[in-house]
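LOG
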Amino acid sequence: MTNNPKSTDRGIDLTIDIDATLEEVWQALTTGEGIARWFAPYAAVTPGEGGSVSVGWDPKEMWEQPITVWEPQRRMQTAAEMPSKDGRMVRLAVDYYVEVQGGRVRVRLVHSGFDDSSWDDYIDGLDAGWSFFLFNLKHALERHRGLDRLQLSARFRTTARAGEDHPVFGAKGLRVRPPIGGLRPGDACRFSLAGADVEATVAVRHASRTVGFVVPAWNDALLFVEREGMKDTHHLGIWLSLYGVPETTAAPLGQGLADVQSALSVA
């Protein structure tokens, strides 16, 4: 994956190449069923310009964005207004560009519209999140083509100092070894969840905010840990994406995530 921020515009500009057909990638980006396999687990799309994309991690809390550009198997853009820190409404857009390059499909994601430095911390969080989600898109299409995803999660309020290894990776959490602070993409490691001690490989890493692991023991599942903001007290999310895994494996893992939340959450 490459990250090529434009010098003339604040925002995100990411590119990833995927070993799939153009139709498969387009379907993954522009249908509810496709989106649910790599991004939010609840998704619906009304296709075409003037349509909409709705996504959510809770079916009762869906986020809808209008489709403002629709060029089949070339480009889709969604856009919406968001309030800035000083109360202004700013139009932010997400563009997905797709094209065949060297026998693979290149996806370019551009998240733009940020008009001043007040957005910089938000952009940093977006960069961490989008980097993982594009990896998840590639992983779902290349490793789990055609399989639906079961996503287990825990999201809770917790505490940790910025710049230190987060307790979620320590003895009360996932017990990542070797210590998380020294791990980089491609590194092998181990962690524990629900009494199982498993091997994993670091897939993506944004040192201060996110890390994603591929877990072979669970049919190449993805485990994503996200720190939301850099204040000492913050929300933390742990998201486990399972593909083709039986319920007898999935159920204990869900309880394991609940146990981590119980150990580390604060009021």
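LOG (cont.) second protein
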Amino acid sequence: MASEITLSLLIGAVQPSPVPREVMESLVSASVQVSATGKSGFDLSFAVSKGSPLLTDLLPTGYFDPPTRVILVVTMAGSATVLMDGVITFQEMVPSDEPGKAVLSIKGDDLTRMLDLVDLSGFPWPAMPAEARVAIAVGKYIPLYGIVPIVIPSVLIDVPNPVAHIPVQRGTDLNYIKTLADRVGYVFFIQPGPLPGMNLAYWGPMLRTAIPFLPVPPPIAIDWDGASNVESLQFSFDGFAKTQWVVVIQVGSIPVPIPVPDINPISPPLGRKSPIPLKISPMPGLAKYTPLQAAGIALAQAASTANVISGQGTLDVLRYGAILPARTLVDVRGAGVTYDGQYFVDSTTHTIKPGSYKQSFTLSRNALIAGSGDPLSYLTSQVQELGGFATAAANSATTVLPGGLGVPTTPPGPLLPVPTPVPSPGGGRITALPASP
């Protein structure tokens, strides 16, 4: 178990540097919210007085002005983890008559905010599939923010003929990238790290499996023979939330309804007992797509709505012995056979104060009963037959793309472990975080 945690704070216009000592001495709390699918953000609170350098020198000169870049790095047991790489979006000053009670709050979002500034509607993308457009759109930000695109090709690669049609952008880079992701059932997010100043922009399927560029967290345990490592944990199961989605494929003049499976290779069952859907509903919005495109979108949407088992809890990072990341899997122990097993970490909130580092988290999964057995056991399901669904969609298509109806389960490229270097000395640290008793 780690005995000390160091928080490093770096601030700067484009290339942040460690903050002055008086800034770290004024920092009373740092909060970081990380969401698997939505926007992530941070909130820094500083205790200030009338004579504080933060108010007399730094604030008037624009040190905390938007869109100044902010990086938060936590070093634990010699390993550095980049919690947040974002930009300041909001300031809040709360004066007080009591000395030392005035608070300056600095809030911000992750770097996706910088992709959402300039409306480039009408910009042409001739003879380029969506994957190339995303890579080029994100690549523009490499020099400024070190954002490296990780683009997972889909089976729906379409290179438009520039003689017949030239796609044009609608909206900002962020809006356009997300629109292209929605068309193939993908997601887009920016993962900070692995080193301070570096970021990975992921455009691909929502992997509810172990992700190579994220660390594997230790199990969460409660009421586990003295090995409990969380402060609170609770689970819920909404039996009426699961829906059996159906798509209708036209075979000649006969409409054929086909159930959409909610589990697939990138979203395998995380338990042995899959809840029975109590509602049946057609999936709207697929008529404008080709059969293969509709199949890919339907699979992604069905998988995203199948996680009817949810959990939430809090933990002390020093007691847990690690930092729980979002967007990965974690094992739960001690909750009973029904709720034990693997869960996907939907979101985490880090709250860091002198002497304290807490995390709250939310979990989800698509099945009950600990142990998933064969991760491809869905192939034998009588209700959710992925093979039948994929075959029906492919048979109705005029062309079949190479690779069939599937996506790579492992992104290409080398694994990127969490780095161990410690940020530059000389300021920007707070080390008053002793071990828990």
